[in-house]
Design brief:
By secondary structure, this protein is of the alpha+beta class. It is 49% helix and 17% strand. It has helices spanning 14-52, 56-71, 101-107, 121-128, 146-151, 184-222, 242-248, 258-266, 270-276; strands at residues 75-81, 87-95, 113-114, 132-134, 156-164, 167-176, 229-231, 237-240. The strands form two sheets. Strands 3-2-1-6-5-4 form a six-stranded antiparallel sheet. A hairpin with a 2-residue loop joins strand 5 (156-164) and strand 6 (167-176). The longest helix has 39 residues, at 14-52.
């Protein structure tokens, strides 16, 4: 809404109204363009982080850099449920100069927040499973650290959940020294960002599980009393058990492929066995 005020009594004409309407349209278009650009910057940043980041901590740092540029965000916090699920605990904080994470750890103290009461922004976002604007840091029941935030000049922000497979795994809180204005499209965009971050976490956990599984398999293979060879679909030898090397005397360097093993072990019959694709 655009309003015009005068110091003297003035009767606005239809031409004045048309002019103000045109000005409002220009301003509205500029605002929409800025909001669309902000959403695009965030989506690109998160898409790159999902591919390149080594984990959630690095992805959140990249998200902070993007929101600092696109939205004027000064502080980004990552909250995650405690082991017993009763509290939300702050796991990371990122800051734009003149702030520093070390300064904010002290100035914007964050003890564990009760998850079930919904009386803090992170717990409310977690329980409702949707993003929320913090348009003004005024009532204590809405933002518990309002005095600390005011002293730092922070006056508004937003928060959104990180979700994976329908479960909320964390909450991101963003605070700014600028007065942010509610943009429902941006909130929906941030909920998508939260899902992308959740997928990143799930993928990294799955990769870690796979590495542990491969490590266990390798340990079992290496210590198996039965001579074992593992090769891939191309015939390249991946692993040899110690008992294989002890029995045959061949190491992985000696027989890098299945065909190399057949030639070393069967000599004249090797060509026949390779041709027949007989499993040894």
């Amino acid at each position: 809404m655009l309003g015009a005020h005068t110091r003297h009594l003035h009767r606005f004409s239809p031409e004045d109204a048309n002019f103000l309407q045109a000005v409002a349209s220009v301003i509205g278009g500029a605002v929409q363009h800025h909001q669309a650009r902000a959403r695009q910057v965030l989506e690109i940043a998160v898409a790159k982080a999902s591919v390149e980041a080594e984990g959630l901590a690095e992805a959140i740092a990249r998200f902070h850099a993007a929101t600092s540029e696109a939205l004027g965000i000064d502080v980004v916090e990552l909250w995650e449920p405690s082991t017993d699920g009763r509290l939300l605990e702050r796991k990371a904080i990122h800051a734009t100069p003149p702030f520093s994470p070390h300064q904010l750890e002290r100035s914007l103290a964050a003890p564990g927040l009760e998850l079930a009461d919904g009386m803090s922004v992170p717990s409310r976002v977690c329980l409702r499973r949707q993003a929320e604007w913090i348009t003004t840091l005024l009532p204590r029941h809405h933002f518990r650290r309002v005095e600390e935030a005011r002293e730092l000049g922070l006056c508004s922000g937003l928060a959104f959940p990180i979700s994976s497979n329908g479960e909320i795994t964390g909450v991101v809180v963003c605070l700014s020294r600028e007065q942010l204005h509610a943009d429902e499209a941006l909130l929906r965009c941030l909920e998508g960002v939260g899902r992308s971050l959740g997928e990143l976490v799930s993928r990294k956990l799955a990769e870690a599980d796979l590495r542990r599984s491969e490590s266990r398999f390798r340990q079992i293979l290496m210590h198996s009393p039965v001579p074992l060879m593992v090769h891939d679909d191309t015939g390249a030898v991946v692993e040899l058990s110690r008992s294989w090397t002890d029995l045959t005397g061949y190491t992985l360097a000696d027989i890098p492929t299945r065909d190399a093993w057949l030639r070393a072990a069967f000599h004249e019959r090797a060509a026949e066995l390779i041709a027949r694709g007989e499993e040894i």
